[in-house]
Amino acid sequence: MLLEANHVSFRYGTEPWLFRHVDFKIKTGEIVGLVGPSGSGKTTFGRLLAGYETPHEGSITLDGSPVPSNRYHPIQLVFQHPEKAVNPRWKMRKIVNEGWEPDEALLEKLGIMQEWLERWPNELSGGELQRFCVARALGTNTRFLIADEMTTMLDAITQAQIWHAVLEIAEKRNMGVLVISHDHHLIHRLCTRIIEFKDLV
Ligand SMILES: Nc1ncnc2c1ncn2[C@@H]1O[C@H](COP(=O)(O)OP(=O)(O)OP(=O)(O)O)[C@@H](O)[C@H]1O
Fold first, then answer.
1. 59 CA distance to ligand 1 middle (Å)
2. C-alpha triplet 147, 61, 130: angle, nearest 5°
3. Which of 8, 40, 183 is the best mutation target for the ligand 1 pocket, counting ligand atoms within 8 Å of the beta carbon and taking the most?
4. Distance between CA atoms of 187 and 16, rounded to whole angstroms?
5. Which among 13, 95, 120, 189 would be 20 to 30 A from 29, CA to CA?
6. Which ligand 1 atom lies nearest to the CA of residue 43?
7. Ligand 1 in contact with 41 (CB < 6 A)?
8. What is the ipTM of this complex?
9. By alpha-carbon position, which residue is closest to atom 29 of ligand 1?
């Protein structure tokens, strides 16, 4: 399966164009790194790929067709701040089962303790909460994961544990992963291909 940005342009409101005519391709099975200076538009581009924003010009396609948005989205985004990605009024069990129901083995692989399922989001650490966001994004219908600074605020051990689990699942399911990060060490360790955002725009 091929996820493509075709001549995509985007601006916020009446601000100047953030980028214009961006072409990008990622295939399932690929782990691609996206790097570039702060403020250059990487997060915005990730949001466009995952359907959170609509391009002003161009299109995002999956195998040449528009990405279906009326069911579980095949392109899932996990970003840096898990506390902003969950409903504070839902318990963790409801949050993690929002789009699909991950089994115990997957939760265990991500280091999620069963007792955390009965807690509220504000009763977990950032790292614990992020594990839930990753589990929620790894539905069996996920074809591409956009990991935008996904493990930036986590300690090295937690970061390694989460990436180990994600890469194992990605390989088993032939998922594509786009890793957006300022951590060059992490990018070089994980990715099969690395792209400078400035080379796309
Ligand atoms: N909702 C918004 N409204 C207006 N401008 C925005 C909005 N979100 C982001 N921007 C601006 O768009 C530009 C690109 O932001 P973006 O977060 O995509 O960059 P980035 O490359 O991911 O940065 P970083 O590496 O610091 O995360 C920035 O100048 C930012 O201030």
1. 20
2. 15
3. 40
4. 30
5. 95
6. 22
7. yes
8. 0.96
9. 39
pLDDT digits 0-9 by tens, 25-40 = 999 999 999 999 999 9
The pTM assigned to this predicted structure is 0.95
Handedness of CA 36, 39, 44, 46 (dihedral sign): positive
The C-alpha atoms of residue 115 and residue 123 are separated, in whole angstroms, by: 11
- Domains along the chain with CATH numbers: 2-200 (3.40.50.300)
**Can you read off the two tokens belonging to residue 126?**
């950032």
Tell me how far apart the alpha carbons of residues 65 and 143 are, in angstroms, rounded to a whole number: 14
Please give the C-alpha separations between residue 125 and each of 118, 133, 135, in angstroms, as whole numbers: 14, 13, 16
Of how many residues is the chain composed?
Answer: 201
